[in-house]
Amino acid sequence: MANPLPTHAQVVIIGGGIHGCSVAYHLAKAGWKDVILLERKTLTSGTTWHAAGLVGQLQGSHATTAFASYGVELLQEIEAETGQNPGFRQSGSISIAVNEERLAELKRKADFASLFGIEAHYMNTAEIAERWPLMNAEGVLGGIHMPSDGSANPIDLTQALAKGARMHGATIRERIKVDEVLTEGGNVTGVRTDEGTITADFVVNCSGMWARELGRQDGVGVPLHACEHYYLVTEPIPDLPSDLPVLRSYCDGTYWKEDAGKLLFGFAHFHAKAWAKDGIPDSFEFDSLPFVDDDVMEVLELALNRVPILQETGIRTFFNGPESYSHDGRFTLGEAPDLKGYYVLAGVNSTGIQSGPGAGKALADWIMAGHPTMDLAEMDPARIEEWQARDPYLRERCAETLVLTYAMHWPGRQRETARGLRRTPFYHAMKAKGAVYSEAQGWERPGWFAPEGVTPEYDYSFHRPSWFDHAQAEQKAARTGVAMIDYSMLGKLMVEGPHAMRFLQRICTNDINMPVGRVAYTLMLNERGGIESDVTVARHGVDSFMLMSSISHTRRDRDHLKRHIADGEDVRLRDATTAHAVLSVAGPKSRDLLAAVCDADLSNEAFPFNSLQHFHIGHAPVFAQRLSYTGELGWEIFITPDFAEHVFEVLWAAGEPMGLRLVGGEALNALRIEKGFLHWGHDMSYTEAPHQVGLGFVCKPDKALPFIGRDAFVARKAAGEGPFLCHIKLKEAGPLLHHNEPVLKDGQVVGYVASGGYAYQQGAAIGTCFINADNSASISNGTYAVVVEGQVVSATLSRKPLSRPQTGS
């Protein structure tokens, strides 16, 4: 008779794939013994068992690369600890390019590797053909070789983690199905299984493709969907070299690896299909899906051409198995925003074997510390809104994520599925004037505007896309004339009630005890002095404030505020995002434009910077804040949706003779970088303190009511530790900066570009960058450069913005 389940555990982990076993292993190894992992069937029986087992250290972000690099370390050590061989072979990898843009992407990938000390170097076509003699080199321009990559056996690696977890005191039980996660008062309390109930302090949802449905029971959004994913394994190939590197041909949509004398080759599909639209069968265990030839024929033909020996080799295994993909290509890792003690690790987009050990450790560290110990903001469950966790949306978006796995990873690439979901009141008017839309959190937002006669559609490049000059012209209008920008999609949270001001004084670093009609830029910190968000707060009444958030962080900011309302505080939160359309009018001529259409005194004395007033434009009642993200004189005008088009038409009619130009997000990004305006998630996160990013001036530690994180802010500022956010400009006019380019000081890597753009006024690429330094004073010493596609480009660097904001007088 099996041992009965315990009635209590400190941590219950749901799911016995690589992620669940990794979390259990790292918790137990750190000394948390009261940990139990529950698996509905058998360990690895969901998707882990049929993974290809590729181990590539370099991933798409700092966090995921850290996961993968740690995974290689663990693969090299875990057999000595547990006696279980994970089947790791460090044969390296080669990624090839068959066009110039793919070669540029691969070179940028190699540049990125230098930030982590990972060896990655360029190989010419002849060198690749010598190392991978089965490859047809026709059309191959070159590639990138990473010697430390390789492959592992997914089942053996997971069993090694499970064995290590048991050795350190964790319990693992198979054939136990979790029917429900139990909660009370916004806290997790345990799980109900088919063999009894276990109370718990923490519950971890690592249930793979079941994670979405399990999370939904408790209102936890897990944005993933299983999709069909194919690979084939050949018959044995005589004299096949056992040390062949993993070969990736992204443009062919295919990868190959040696597999016990055979070739395994898999596909990043050009046309992916969501699986189990009606739910996953309860009996699923080590199951595969029907192999449909037509689903892979297009990619298979490319594979047969790239590796011709496949044309004369039999296929032993035709495999189709489900893999979970997320709506945005990012993991979901962290604590659920509305349910304390409920953690999620799921939706890793076919990178589970290479990322699983590191991701599991990161989540275990978060549980033990009570907060993330590294920057995991990109994976935050709080980025997900309710509608993004629904199946109809996920079936479209998640399948597209699979298609994009091997597609070009263009800067600013826009999704094509599930578009047109959220439109501002200016959508049609701006579309009629050439708006080419990008998408953020479901919102359609103008990216750039096509002049008459220009096709209004995005194209992409690591260099200069076709719309580059149009976006430069939009920048010019904002700097020298007048520009109009749609800000309607920015989050607007009303904070109201008798205790609203006191509450915000505690939450915000700046002094919010300001007169009605004033606006303040402020940070919100955590107890460790890290930046949880940056927002503007406008005082609309004695007990009424509007807090404005960036598009993608509206829910996160709302959750942060909600969590910090103390017992007895009379504070009400109301999302007013869709209650107001917003137009920004900015530039040296913005006062002239507004003066032509409104009944307000716009002088600096009557309407100073960071103030708020109500007036009329045409026949419409509006209110406006005098500030601008462009760094120029400007106003943000708030209009109820019913009057929105009228206000737009009035402004356009008055502004057209002045050269008024509509401006999109591509131009705005460069404008704000040039003036030193930061973006949370790129230029700062909850790991950085204000002094590191030059925002200490909005922190008022001497306020009568101390803000959250004040003492930590003061201590970290006194310690003066980096890295530090700086501003950088290339000395050559040609190259572009996008994100993550390495920054050199005297020839050594000392940091990376956080945000990049091309500034019209500077005539060069610019960016913000994080620089590792003992102290801020030492930054000015030395000669700086940036690595762009393998080329070292000289640069100037400063802690101050490249151009001083011109708020006007």
UniProtKB/TrEMBL annotation:
Which Pfam families does this chain map to?
A: DAO, FAO_M, GCV_T, GCV_T_C
Q: What highest taxon heads this organism's lineage?
A: Bacteria
Tell me which positions the record assigns to the signal sequence.
none
Q: What class of enzyme is it?
A: oxidoreductase
Q: Which UniProt keywords apply?
A: Oxidoreductase
Which ranges carry the FAD dependent oxidoreductase domain?
11-366
Q: Aminomethyltransferase C-terminal domain spans which residues?
A: 725-802
Example GO molecular function:
sarcosine dehydrogenase activity
Q: Which residues form the FAD dependent oxidoreductase central domain?
A: 370-423
Give every GCVT N-terminal domain span: 426-703
The record's family statement is: Belongs to the GcvT family.
The name under which this protein is listed is Sarcosine dehydrogenase
